Amino acid sequence: MTIAEVVPSLLAGLDVPGADNTLDLPSARRVVLLLVDGLGHHLLREHAEHAPFLSSLAGREISAGFPSTTAASIASIGTGLLAGEHGIVAYTFCVGDEVLNSLTWSRAGDHHHDLRKTLVPEVVQPHPTLFERAAAAGVAVSAVAPLAHRGSGLTRAALRGAWYRGAAGFGDLALGAVAAVRQDRSFCYAYHPDLDTIGHFYGPGSEEWLLQLEFVDSLAERIASRLPSGAVLVVTADHGMITVDDRIDFDTEPLLWEGVRVITGEPRVRYLHTESDEVLDVWREFLGDRADVLSREDAVEAGWFGPVGPLAVDRIGDVVVAMRKSAVVVRSQAEPLLSKLTGMHGSRTPQELAIPLLVHTAP
Q1: Do 132 and 271 share a structural domain?
Q2: 325: helix, strand or coil
Q3: Second label for 156, Cα 20 to 30 Å away, from 70, 217, 247, 291?
Q4: Which positions carry the signal peptide feature in this UniProt record (predicted)?
């Protein structure tokens, strides 16, 4: 059971043709899906006392899919596909000769270089979205998310088809989500980013993170308390998070450079585009038990990305490096801010992959 099945399961209750309720979610004519960035299943269980409302809801654990990172998971929410099919395969990845930062839709390392005209989002991710399908079936589809995300490359790639309402804060997000489902056959996707941001800077489980979790719990409770009778609130996440303390710096380790033409991904999962078959063995030996280092073919065969289509193959790279335990491969010179973060995600540990799927039906 994966994040890609969440929206189809909810749209089945809204009579959208082809939508299958594989997760056996409650059928409702008004639905709010709240995605809390970084709310891992294990983190929520470990800190349940800080989230009494969320912890009281019926639910289960599902998988974010690999890589366990925001852009890939949001694309899975929007398309009903995993990364190997929708092609948003990482935080940064190669599209032809360009390295795309999929969150900012800019050239990796240069946020001022907007790529929306040269790497058109609807071409980079060409599959029809579930929101387009739902709107075509007569469902009122809305997205309530940060103002800055309106018209972004990722929004266009993954969420097109939804009417977008920019939210300036907690109250705006809550009231916007409730307002979006006042009419019959309505679906609202709501997104809250700040728990993930706090986790990156201070670490999941830190005092700052726990206080933010309390705010998130209050946000979900306030949405639930204002929903019309019979409406359903579903809360999920895009990934979990771990605290890292074992940093390997690619930029200062010449042995790791040899035969590597381009390195993409992020610290917990790296894709290596290579010029030598020896790269796999060198990285495997160097990292030892700190990572799973597989060829692209072996990672695909192992099912890491789900079904893999031609769109994603070249973007994955020749070698896939999935970090274990608390290790990361950072780039202190090319990615100075990213390299210093305390909390990270992207790899295949249960703490990163497992996300909650929680359900509340308004009385």
Answers
A1: no
A2: coil
A3: 217
A4: none
- The verdict on 229 and 250 lying in the same domain is no
Q: Walk along the chain (363 residues) and give the pLDDT tens digit of each residue.
A: 999 999 999 999 999 999 999 999 999 999 999 999 999 999 999 999 999 999 999 999 999 999 999 999 999 999 999 999 999 999 999 999 999 999 999 999 888 899 999 999 999 999 999 999 999 999 999 999 999 999 999 999 999 999 999 999 999 999 999 999 999 999 999 999 999 999 999 999 999 999 999 999 999 999 999 999 999 999 999 999 999 999 999 999 999 999 999 999 999 999 999 999 999 999 999 999 999 999 999 999 999 999 999 999 999 999 999 999 999 999 999 999 999 999 999 999 999 999 999 999 999
Are 180 and 135 a contacting pair, CB within 8 Å? no
- 254 burial (CB, 10 Å; 0-12 / 13-18 / 19+) is exposed
Question: Do 68 and 83 lie in a common domain?
Answer: yes
Same domain, 237 and 247: no
- Please tell me whether residues 214 and 290 are part of one structural domain: no
Per DSSP, 192 falls in state E
The C-alpha atoms of residue 94 and residue 99 are separated, in whole angstroms, by 4
C-alpha 342/C-alpha 340 separation (Å) is 7
Pairing relationship of beta strands 30-36 and 186-192 according to DSSP bridges? parallel
Q: What CATH number does the domain containing 296 carry? A: 3.30.1360.180
Nearest Cα residue to 237 out of 224, 221, 220: 220
Domain that holds residue 289: 243-344
Tokens read off for 127: 């599959």
Looking at the structure, tell me whether residues 301 and 159 fall in a common domain: no
- Count of helices and strands (H, E) across the chain: 17, 19
C-beta of residue 323 within 8 angstroms of C-beta of residue 347: yes
| Contact indicator for 88, 102 with CB cutoff of 8 Å | yes
Token representation of residue 24: 């056996």
DSSP string, 259-279: TEEEEEEETTEEEEEES-TTH
CATH number at residue 126: 3.40.720.10
Q: Which residue, among 25, 4, 37, 19, has the nearest Cα to 219 in the 3D structure? A: 37
Residues 76 and 206 in one domain: yes
Q: Torsion over CA of 123, 4, 296 and 245, rounded to 10 degrees?
A: 110
